[in-house]
Amino acid sequence: MNSYQPAPDPQRQLAPLAGQTTPDNPWPLRLLAQKMREYVDRMPALWVEAQIMEYKPRPGTRMAFFVIRDTDADVSINVTTFPGVVEAAGPGFEPGARVILQVKPNFWETRGNLSLRAGKILIEGEGDLLAQIEQLRRQLAAEGLFRPEHKVPLPFIPQRVGLICGRNAKAREDVVVNALARWPATQFEIREVAVQGERCVDEVSAAIQELDAHPEVDVIVVTRGGGSVEDLLPFSDERLVRAAFVCRTPLVSAIGHEEDAPLLDLVADYRASTPTDAARRIVPDVVELQTQLQQGMVRLRSAVDRRLARERELLSQLTSRPVMVHPGAPLEQQRQLIAAEQLRLGAALTRRVSREEGLLTGLQSSLRALSPQATLARGYTILRAPGGQIVRSANDLQRGDLLEGVLAEGTFIVKVMGVNPEGTIAPTAPTDADSDPTRL
């Protein structure tokens, strides 16, 4: 006989997928069972049709066990549920009965057993009612009654709660007690109505309209405990659903248990799984709010302290700067700079004035040197003809001409006694005519 025994290796890496396992790298059985359980756990609850095969009531037990079989094939499976689910199914629940069950598959790893957990059981004939409800659900959904944009948000703290419930119902106590425990100041406007039977639709619809018109009611809760399909059928009635749709006040549906789903749940602004859940949703928890307030105050105080610390640090940095320690230092520095500039400017002006004075003196010297008055001061004479012309050449003179001589100080009259353009001439004795001053 051939047998393959791979060597155990506790450090080997297991294949992540079943299709990747090999003879050298197989899955341990526990991993296969774990994968199967995880796969089954991901399956949603579903409705199945079957026939009851075995059922023996066990009074006093917390669970009910029975076996169901396919109506046409030889396929059976074990079912567990709470005794209350069996009781809600009615007296027709017995071996041989055809039923429709809402189930959730369960896989037990240790024994490798697959079973079903039943949340609701309907005796054959109730399936027709579910089909009618489903048809109405599709019709109303097509009209847009269940669209999210029609949902109205619940108020944070309602002034008054409108409560629609059965007469002396436990659901009423669940809502009131839990709401008051969370928010002691909660006030209620209660309308007790029939929550099953022929009068249920009319009374619940009228109560919704009445509370919707109440000026102090901020939210309306419609609630009742669980029950059979027939018991909850009024809450899927078209008239009641439409009355809830036109309600302007936020509406909370708390019908039955979490697995129950009447059409009122779909049209309501909020669907609570139980009456107690409805109480938790309509009012805040005062203790929780106080805790949040205290935590908020702590966070706010901490934020303020951090901000003050940052501002103090910034202020300390600013005040430690030289300009803040000695605020006059920059002004004194500027004063010194201005004084230095004034000194430099004065020196520059002095140098410029001295330079200009020297230049002016030189120009004055040059001007004096070129000035006729300076020439005259050195002993020279300027001769001018009677017409005032300056005599520059002896060729312009004739013997006997009278000329005006200009000295540095004063003038005089001279008479030309002789002319020699080439050089000097000997003086001649004056005649009487030459001495006549009237000839000038």
TrEMBL record:
InterPro entries: Exonuc_VII_L, Exonuc_VII_lsu_C, OB-fold_nuc-bd_dom
Catalyses which reaction(s): Exonucleolytic cleavage in either 5'- to 3'- or 3'- to 5'-direction to yield nucleoside 5'-phosphates
Gene Ontology CC entries for this record: cytoplasm; exodeoxyribonuclease VII complex
Keywords per UniProt: Cytoplasm, Exonuclease, Hydrolase, Nuclease
Domain OB-fold nucleic acid binding: 31-121
Chain segments annotated as coiled-coil in the UniProt record: none
Example of a GO MF term: nucleic acid binding
EC number: 3.1.11.6
Domain of life: Bacteria
Family, as annotated: Belongs to the XseA family.
Subunit annotation: Heterooligomer composed of large and small subunits.
Protein name listed in UniProt: Exodeoxyribonuclease 7 large subunit
UniProt organism field: Scrofimicrobium appendicitidis
Gene: xseA
